[in-house]
Amino acid sequence: MKKLLSITLIAILLLTLIPASAMAQEPVTCQDEVTVQKDDWLSKYADKYLGNAYAWPAIFQWHNQAAEAEPDKFPNQIVNPDLIEVGWTICIPTAEDATDFLATYTEGVDCMGAAAGDEVSVLYQWSGSEEEKLNTVVKPLVDACGLEIVATTTRDAAVLDTKAKSTPPDVVFWPTTAPLTLYTDLLKDLGDLGADPANYAPFWQDMGTVGGRWLAAPVKADIKTIIWYSPANFDLFGYAVPTTWGELEALVEQMVADGNVPWSMGMESGPATGWTGSDFIQDILLVQQGPQYVLNVIDGTVAYNDAGVMQAYETYGKWAKDETYTVGGATGTVSTGFLDAIYKVFSDPPEAMMVKQSGFAGGEVAAEYPDLVYGTDYDFFAVPGARGMQGGADFMMAFGDSPAAKALVAYLAGPRGAREWAGVGFDLSPNRMALGSYNDPALIKKSLALAGAAGFTPDIGDTIPAPFGEAEWKALVDYVNGEDLATALAAAAAAQADALK
Amino acid sequence: MVPKIMKQGALTPWLYLSAALLIMLLFIVYPTIRTVTLSLRDKAGAQPATVDCVAGEPCWGVLENYRYALTNPEMLQALRNNALWILLMVPGTVGAGLLFAVLTDRVRYERLAKTIIFLPMAISFVGAGVIWRFVYFLETGEGAQIGVLNAIIAGLGGQPVAWLTNSNWMVNNVSLWIVGTWLWAGFCMTILSAALKAVPTEILEASRVDGASEWQVFWRIMFPLILPTVTVVTTTMIINILKVFDIVFVMTNGLNGTEVIANRMFKFIVTNQGRSMAIAGLLIVLTIPIMIFNVRRFREQEEIR
């Protein structure tokens, strides 16, 4: 009996040892062991060793596994992937190990209690390639939690209005903050849904806050206070990128003297005709009056026919109405489509030297002229003298607080969603966690411009109520077509007073 | 003596009509009443329109939205444009329809001609708007003219014209009327052609034998006989033109002096419901005279029977 007992005891002891031995770490194979230098970060290593800056989580996790297995070799574990110290030794996995790891990587994805098969209804304006980019961004979340995203695509505010009042979508992505004022009581506080406001700069938080509740987080942004040009053409004619507004005006005169047309302007855009002119006026206001003035125009403190606005219109009109300064003169400005206006600067031979347009213009040029190289054939510079950055943004707002909705909101407002967004190149992500994850050189330059912006003013055209916006565009088109400035602006000012009272 | 089984009770006609009346009540009478009610309310429909009154400006109380519809400069432009559309386009379409009806009647390839002229009615009005936008397209830079009209003009050595974005609003409106006429002439032609065919040929032969010229035959004999049909077509066209929207929205969105009533209504439909409904109410009021005219004509025709 005693013998049996002792054999059983030994057997049990042996059995408990087996899992323990299985737990003993095997040495982890490293492709290389690098010592951290100044200005190194994980995505740099990922780009160098794994061919994809975006694969840095593999290094993050692999190194930590190596540190656990061989703490003498790798004394420092990475706690925060953004923070690696000079002098640390990092273990880089082999490419195959990295790929295997990334296939199952679910860091940054918190399902927030959502079960597989849960549906989250989403409404946005994107379609085609834009919609595909969004799907790529949320794919890790969908795969990890088994969520089903039921999407509606529409650009019609009336559709959003009908749905909001009957069967609101769980999450809506909209290019203006208008839904904030229209559906304040129906929207949920994003903090309650698991989003972290600290990931956004204060001006973004302010833009999305109504009555102390944080209702909108920007997921996509584009900067607009930039001018696109061809460095090749500039070199050809000996033009330098201007750094002050005075230099820009002198450059325009120099171009005219050389027989070149400085500007390509196109306001035609179907029901939205006039928006490019509105952007230009806003940038001129940022130069001449400053960002606070622009905010005052948006909320109605400054009337639209104020002297400052008139001065901006006159500056714009000097260039927009004259065919020595812009292609086609007034007729050209009013009749040319905004895309055609972009192409004219980069055609061969070019019809104009510069076009003031948002960041998306780069993508359009690349699509239309695939042989051109960013940096050599097309590039942008910030509007000189602008005291702030004008931009557009798409905001995420939530009508529902189901677990699936929480998962989506927390994901996009968190580090993983931000990095995925930057990596896929769906414009800029205002989420602070996105910095360092861009792959496209143009986007990197823009992200730095946005991060360094002294102030950010939302695009007037996107922020003001529709009747005021349309009156503004009408005033622009009428003015360029020859109407008296005071009359045109008076009508817009009346619409402004009416819409904002 | 009428057998009892064939006598209709006083209630029977109402039973036959009840289904149609119910549908009309639900889809026409109720929305109209609701439109008028909403037009007396503010932008969200919650409070009476008096809250939209601005201190220091004339206020029409609960009819504030109607004050906007009748005095705002954009609405006045829209009313002016609709009036011009009616004055110039109705004779245009009816005249074109009449002309085509008479001419196609006399050729061998009548059915082919009629099909081609009627074809624009078959495509959506938005589609027609998009097609004509390309026809009117203007290229101001160095590129080739891709708009048909400007390509022809440039090919003949002239200066391309801005058809939709001209500083002269009349040019823009005429461009839109051409599109409207192109769309509706086929409709007018079909109806008028049917009426023409109903004119007894003996009368026409007799008049020709009596020495009347073709012109006299048309104006003195054909036209008076088809006058009822012409009236129907004209009133239909007037109502259509009062409601015109797609052409204007797709081609110019009301810019450059081309605003119309329906476009103004659409602009406010989400942001200021009361105003939008007031403009719709105005449109109903403008259509009433035509409705009265139509009803009177039906009565006259009934009396003739």
Could you please describe the fold and organization of this structure?
The complex is a heterodimer of chains A (501) and B (305). The longest helix of chain A is centred in the N-terminal third of the chain and has 22 residues, at 2-23. In chain A, β6 and β7 (213-214) form a beta hairpin. In chain A, α17 (403-413) crosses α18. Chain A has helices at 2-23, 42-50, 56-69, 95-103, 129-145, 157-165, 178-182, 202-207, 231-237, 245-257, 275-288, 291-299, 307-320, 329-335, 338-346, 360-368, 403-413, 415-424, 441-451, 460-463, 466-480, 485-500; strands spanning 32-35, 89-92, 119-124, 148-153, 171-174, 209-210, 213-214, 217-223, 226-229, 354-356, 379-382, 389-398, 456-458. Chain A is an alpha/beta fold. In chain A, strands 3, 4, 5, 8, 12 and 13 form a 6-stranded mixed β-sheet that branches. Chain A has a 3-stranded antiparallel β-sheet with strand order 10-9-11. In chain A, strands 1-2 form a two-stranded antiparallel ribbon. Chain B has 305 residues and is mainly α. Chain B folds into 2 domains: 1-8 and 42-71 and 269-305, no CATH class; 89-267, MetI-like fold (Orthogonal Bundle). Chain B is 70% helix and 0% strand. Chain B contains 12 helices and no strands. Chain B has helices spanning 12-39, 64-71, 73-105, 110-122, 125-135, 148-155, 169-197, 201-209, 214-242, 246-251, 261-268, 273-304. The two termini of chain B are 24 Å apart. The model of chain B has no long low-confidence stretch (mean pLDDT 89). Classes of the chains: A alpha/beta (501), B mainly alpha (305). The interface between A and B is medium-sized, with 37 and 24 residues.
